[in-house]
Amino acid sequence: MPQLLPYLFILTAVAQPPPDLVTIRGRVTNPVTGQPRPGVEMKLEDDNWHAVTFPVRTNAAGLFAFPPVKRETWMLSAENPEIGNVVYGADAPGNGNAFVVYPPNKETFLEFPITPRGSLRGKVETSGGTPLEHVAVEFRRPSFKDDRIVLHVARVARTNIFGEFYFGALPPSEYVLCAVPNVLDRIVPPVGFLDLAVPASYRIYTESCLPPQRITSNSSRSINFKLSPSSSLTLSGRVTGFPPFDPKSPNGPQNEVELKSLSFESSGRSPFQGGLNTKTMEFLYEGLEPGSYSLRITNISNNRGVVRVEMLNLKASIAGLVLDLKPPSPLRFTLTSDGDADLTPNLESLQLVSAAGYFTRPVKNLFDPGIIEGDYRLRAEMKEGACIAAATMNGESVLRKRFHIEGGKEQIITISLTKKCGSFTGRVVRDGRPVPRARVVALLSGTPQEPNDLLSLLVDSDGDFNVSGLTPGIYQFAAWQEDGAEAHIPFSLADADFIAATVAPSESRTIEIPLSKGKL
Questions:
Q1: N or C: which end of the chain has fewer CB within 10 A?
Q2: ∠154-41-66 over CA atoms, to 5°?
Q3: Angle, CA 317 vertex, CA 312 and CA 320 arms, to 5°
Q4: How far is CA 144 from CA 95, 150, 165, 259, 395, in A?
């Protein structure tokens, strides 16, 4: 027996990973039932998504373990036909950020919960029953991005020759389903007697979207689309008030008109074919689908861009639209302080935002020489300890609201700064219990139907948050969860459940925000 001790010591030493290596293991579970998930293929990759070791599978207890790897940054993912491919820390759809694993010790144990999935199948066909091939069926899901809720494409499937499509392993959530015909197939020949009412050269199949649909765990649904042909639309008009293109100008083209669809996503679709004749200042766009658009007019003069944005809801063709652009207006700001102390250094930045929210102009040295006529709102960033008490132009308040700047006239906005700011300390709750990792949105100006400025933050592990440096007044708050089995992001702020709270000068209030259940 004493002769075996050296060999046992050698075997024990070999079984231990070297000092610069770590072992990553864990368990995959169903968070709804708490049961383990066997037969799931686990992958470990570097931050460039290159495999660093062979995949492993979970056993009957849902456990997995990788061979020792270097102490670096790894990406962990799981995959099988039932769940699809899921990245650790990104179980909820729309969360594009992979969880980065930093092994702190020689061995790291990870709990990997994966919510049960659902499936959906269906067919896309014409109103006459003819299947449509190559139609993209998009699953669009709301996501909070750049202080607004936008619909992004979470999943895409294309119809086969029978017009059929299928989605598997769908994470439970709310989606908008849209059938988007192939651009090359938009102009189609007549398929029935009723189509003769539409000129064949202008006949198109337009995008069709269904109301928000809820996909639940372990569900299987069937949804069909009926697409009807319709006439394409035309938009034409001219721009006045801008000089025509000067070929001798060193700045190159001085005028531009750009059209974008606002059918989904804040950035819109790619510009459509067409544009501006810089000699006659006339613009023309053809082959448009009915829907919402933004028309952006840009003039380059003295290395400065002057922009105007028109929002259009095209239900029929528009001809002869005249956009009269008046000369830019100089805009000056004056600052005053409430009390003896000079609070001017507390103003970090001042911006002028178009009412449509499509462009923002930083104000330098409290002066902007060229503001195009239109509706705007103020956005200011203050250092801690000060806030804006009031802002007026021509005797009217322009604080936390939209205001109009008339072309060709100099305007002065007076801003009063104060130390008497308000603050909120709050907690997000569901059924009286704190909700960790929820998002809180404070509506600083505007309404849920027409929001202007927002303040968004994530609560801590206890569901608590703090907002300070607020101008005294009434604010509206909403909260929702963005990940996990209980995730629900409203499709717009108008669909969220807001509560109103008032804060007085130098007051600190405590509030509770119930988790938004939505109005699906």
A1: N
A2: 120
A3: 80
A4: 10, 6, 28, 25, 36
Rg of the Cα trace of the chain? 29
Residue 55 has which token pair?
């995949």
Nearest to 507 by CA among 475, 479, 477, 464: 475
- How many residues are present in the chain? 520
Token digits of residue 24: 């990553």
User: 438 — phi, psi (to 5°)?
Assistant: -85, 155
CA distance 316 to 350: 40
Give SS3 for 124.
strand
**Cα(427)–Cα(441) distance, rounded to whole angstroms?**
12
Distance, first Cα to last Cα, the chain = 73
Closest to 139 (Cα-Cα) out of 215, 87, 202, 82: 215
Residues 449 and 493: their CA atoms lie apart, in Å, by 7
Burial of residue 326 (CB within 10 Å: 0-12, 13-18, 19+) is middle
Q: Quote the longest CA-to-CA distance of the chain.
A: 102
pLDDT in tens, 476-519: 999 998 876 667 888 889 889 999 999 999 999 999 999 987 54
DSSP 294-346: EEEEEEEETTEEEEEEEEEEESS-EEEEEEE-PPPEEEEEEEEESSSS--GGG
Tokens of 84: 């699809």
Single-letter amino acid, residue 322: V
pLDDT tens, 297-320?
877 654 455 677 788 888 889 999
Report yes or no: 62 and 39 within 8 Å, Cβ to Cβ: no
d(CA 256, CA 245): 10
Pick the closest to residue 171 from 227, 113, 249, 226 (CA basis): 113
pTM for this entry? 0.71
- 461 DSSP 8-state letter: T
429-457 as b/e: b if 16+ CB within 10 A:
bbeeebbeebbbbbbbbbebeebbbbeee
Q: What is the pLDDT of residues 31-77, one digit of tens each?
A: 878 899 999 999 998 877 788 899 999 999 999 999 988 877 788 88
- 344 phi/psi in degrees, rounded to 5: -55, -40
